[in-house]
Amino acid sequence: MKLVEPIVGWQAEMADIRRDIHAHPELAYEEVRTADLVARLLESWGIPTHKGLGITGVVGVIQGATQTGRAIGLRADMDALPMQEANTFSHASKHAGVMHACGHDGHTAMLLAAARYLAQHRDFPGTVYVIFQPAEEGFSGAKKMIDDGVFRQFPMEAVFGMHNWPGIDAGAFAVHDGPVMASSNTFEITIRGKGAHAAMPNLGHDPVMAAVQLAQAFQTIITREVDPLDPAVLSITQIHSGSADNVIPDEAVMRGTVRTFSDGAIDLIERRTREIATLTCQALNCSVQFDFHRRYPPTINNAGEAAFCAQVLQDIVGADKVELARAPSMGAEDFAFMLKEKPGCYVWIGNGHGDHRGSGHGLGPCMLHNSSYDFNDEVLPLGASYWVELARRRLAQPSEGD
């Protein structure tokens, strides 16, 4: 394993920063303390810093020894989740109901260490923008930063992201081209019927039965209409209706999520769920309000950038530690918005299997979005070294116009 010195020597400092962020988690667009910490550290290392893009986002500008007009972006996310931490170790969350259960504290610490090294050495041409993004967990912080002009104010030819992944060995990575994470979409369907006594259903129009039929019919879209080689998931996660055993209610509300890896699949699913909901409710003498929300697009790596990142990773940890064919996840990631704007690549760094946690951890598995999760501090120097090597080598390559 080829780690960058002196980053290895900073591991204890990196862990202290990471644990401080973990102990003080902040929700989407509320990352004021975290953003202030990031900005203060960047400025202490002589890095010009810009705050406020995406409300609480931070961008640092690191110029290399020679200026070529070229630049790349490295992105980390900063927000936490609205959940109660089960861990009781010393750096557990001090804020009830808020927890870093996805490792964004570690992502921020790794990019900070890389920024520190790049600012101290500047042994690369061009410019590296370090992007600390808010509101990844369902609130489109990446899109907000883009809308606020992050790519106009800081022009870059490519952008790169990294996320820890429990279940991949510490010291290993996974990367591949094409889809990495699915799109995230939600729907809400309000069915309005006509209430009646449950013993006299003929006097009403039952929205519950309409909801039941929709729940079954929607699955035929996945099994009979979507290309079976184009994975898709439609899950109805809520059906709310009624208040008494002997009353047919006036209304039923259904909610759920749809995950796909292609725009074509989500176009089909949105169109057909709307049609089925409208026509089924009409047949059952009910009216319907159908709302479909496209939250995050699929996260899709560019082939060239994925191949480049794979080579960088293999040179750091060895080819046997870089998984090139791992199946994509049906989870979603708002780095997808950045990849729709710029070429780039999103890689997974192994977080291990949970045995890195000391005393005081919860009894649950060390998985993402789990109350017993904790980031693995052992991989901090590795992730930071990857960022440094990626920046050095990408900016040293001839540009396409050369």
Automatic annotation (TrEMBL):
Q: Which GO terms describe its biological process?
A: diaminopimelate biosynthetic process
Q: Which Pfam families match?
A: M20_dimer (PF07687), Peptidase_M20 (PF01546)
Any one GO molecular-function label of the UniProt entry: metal ion binding
Q: Which note does the record give on the cofactor?
A: The Mn(2+) ion enhances activity.
User: Does the record bear Manganese in its keywords?
Assistant: yes
Superkingdom of origin: Bacteria
Which keywords does UniProt give here? Hydrolase, Manganese, Metal-binding
| List of residues binding Mn(2+) | C102, H104, E137, H163, H369
Q: Where is the Peptidase M20 dimerisation domain?
A: 185-260
Q: Which InterPro entries does the record cross-reference, listed alphabetically?
A: Amidohydrolase (IPR017439), Bact_exopeptidase_dim_dom (IPR036264), Peptidase_M20 (IPR002933), Peptidase_M20_dimer (IPR011650)
Which coenzyme or cofactor does it need?
A: Mn(2+)
**What's this protein's name?**
Hippurate hydrolase
Q: What is the lineage of its organism?
A: Bacteria, Pseudomonadati, Pseudomonadota, Betaproteobacteria, Burkholderiales
